[in-house]
Amino acid sequence: MRPDHGTPVPYSRRRRIKVFMRDPRVRALLTLLILVIVAFAARGHYHLFSEGWQAIKQANNWYVVAASVAMMLAMVAQAEVMVVLIRSAGVQVKRSTANALGLAANAWSSTFPGGPAISAAMIFREQLKWGATPVVASWYMVLSGALSGAGMAVLGFGAMFLLSAEVHPYSMGLTILALCLLAWGMNWTAKHPDTVEAGLLRVLRWYNRRRRAPEDRWNDRLSGFADQLSAVRLSPGKLLWAVSLSMLNWIAEIFCLLFAVHAVGATPPVSGVVLAFITAKLVGQAQITPGGLGPVDATLVGMLVGVAEMASAKAIAAVIVFRMISFIGLAIIGWLVFLWTFVRDTVDPDRPPTFRQIATGVAVHGTHGAHGHPHGAGARDGGDRPSPRTGGDASPAGDAADPAEPDPN
C-alpha cells in the first residue's frame, strides 16, 4: 500500500535541496564564498605571491612552450582514446572531430561548477550525432572512465614507491584490481550482449514481481540492447592501445606541470611532482568551483612545498604557470573551438544567438552535427539510418538524461 500524499516529507526536502543547489546563482555564490575563504586563509602570506610573480617574470620561456606542447599532447591522447573506442563500435568519426569535441567539452567542464557533468552530457549528445547508439555511448563513458582511473592509480602507486612513502599495498592493489575488473567487465559485456540482455530481463522480471507490477514492465526499454552493443568489436590490441593512450594523457599532463616547475628555476624530485599532480586531480574531482579554482591550486602548492620540497614562492609561481596553461589557456582555446565548430553555422545571422543556442548548438532553422555536418544525429557513414534518439531537448544535458538519471517510476 502506498503512503498518503503527506508522508514522503524527507524526499520532498531532499528534492528541494537538490533544486536549490542546482541554481546557477547559488553555485556562483558558493564559488565566491570559497574564493573569499581561500583569500582570508592566505592573508598572512601575500608576500609569497609577490615573490612568485617575480619568479614568473624570470621564467624560462622555452620550458613554458614545452609545457604548452605537453598539454596539447595530453588533449590529443584523450581524443585518440575516444576515436579508438568509438570506432570499435563501428562509428566512423574523424580525429579532427574528436579533438574538437574534447577541447569544447573541456571548456564546459573547467568553466562552470559541476562542469564535468555538463561535459559528459555534451560528449554523449555528440556521439549520438555521430551515429552511436545510447548503449554504445554509455559503454564508452564507463570504459574510458575506468581506463583513466586505472592509469592514475598506477602512476600514484609508482610515485609513492619512489618517494619511499608509506604505501598501503592492499588498498592500492584493490583499487587497481577493481578498475581493471571494471574495464574487463565492460569489454566482456560488449562481447556477450545477448547473455547480458537475458540476465537484465531476468532481474527486471524479478524486480517487477517484488513490486507487484506486470512482469513485462519496462521490457521495451531493454529490447534492442544486444543489437546495439553487438556493434562493438574491441580487440585485445585495440584495448591495449586505449590503455596506453590513457596513460599517455596523464603522463603528458604531468610533464606539463614538471616543465612549469622547471620554468621558474626549481628542480624537485619527479616523484614529488607526480604525487602533487595526482593529489590535486583527486581534490579537483568535486569541482565545486570552476576548474577547481582555489582548492586545486592550494593543494598543488602545499604538495609541491611539502612533498617536492620546493620553496613556497617558486611553488606558487610554478602553479600559476601550470594553471595558466592547463586551465585558463585550454579553456580559452576550447571556447574558441566550440564557438567555431558547434555554434558558427547554427544561428540565424539576422538574429543574435541566445545563451541556450550557444550552449546547445541548436540553430534557429535546424541543427547540424559536429563540424557542421547537415546529417545531424541520423548520419553514419553517409547513410540514412534514423537517429537513435527519441527527440526532445538537444541541450548538452538533454540527451544524457537517460543514462544519468533513471526513470523514478
UniProtKB/TrEMBL annotation:
Record NCBIfam families: flippase-like domain
Major location category of this protein: membrane
Stretch list, region Disordered: 366-409
Cellular component GO terms held in the UniProt record: plasma membrane
Pfam families given in the database record: LPG_synthase_TM (PF03706)
Subcellular localization(s) per the UniProt record: Cell membrane
Phylogenetic classification of the source organism: Bacteria, Bacillati, Actinomycetota, Actinomycetes, Mycobacteriales
Keyword match Cytoplasm: no
Transmembrane domains' residue ranges: 65-86, 136-163, 170-190, 320-343
Keyword annotations: Cell membrane, Membrane, Transmembrane, Transmembrane helix
Keyword Transmembrane helix part of the UniProt annotation: yes
Biased composition (Low complexity): 391-401
InterPro entries linked to this entry: L-PG_synthase/AglD
UniProt name for this protein: Inner membrane protein YbhN
Source superkingdom: Bacteria
Topology in the lipid bilayer: Multi-pass membrane protein
